[in-house]
Amino acid sequence: MGLKLQMMRLWDTPAVAVLDAVVAKFADRGIKAELVGLNEHAEKLHVNTTGKVSSH
């Protein structure tokens, strides 16, 4: 399942943590989810911070 994010902007690492938490919730239910449509800045931010920050 693709989470379409074409109109979404990621500004900081807490935003990445929230997206990671959403993907993890799907995974907990056996649903593979992926982020689709991130712009270049958001993609770099996500790649560089995913798994390194917490949403708590």
Structure write-up:
This protein has one domain. The chain has a two-stranded parallel sheet with strand order 1-2. It is 46% helix and 11% strand. It has 56 residues and is mainly α. It is globular.
Brief digest:
The protein is mainly alpha-helical. The chain contains 2 helices and 2 strands; from the N terminus they run βαβα.
3D shape? globular
C-alpha end-to-end distance: 25 Å
Beta-strand content: 5-15%
Helix coverage percent of residues? 40-55%
- Main sheet specs: 2 strands, parallel
Quaternary structure type: single chain
Low-confidence stretches: none
- Indicate how many domains the architecture comprises: 1
Kindly state the number of beta strands: 2
- Rg over alpha carbons: 11 Å
Class per helix and strand makeup: mainly alpha
Strand order within the widest beta sheet: 1-2
Order of helices and strands: EHEH
Number of helices: 2
**What would the average pLDDT be, to the nearest integer?**
86
Keywords:
56 residues; mainly alpha; two-stranded parallel sheet; 2 helices; 46% helix
How would you summarize the topology of this molecule?
Elements: E1 2-4, H1 13-28, E2 34-36, H2 40-49
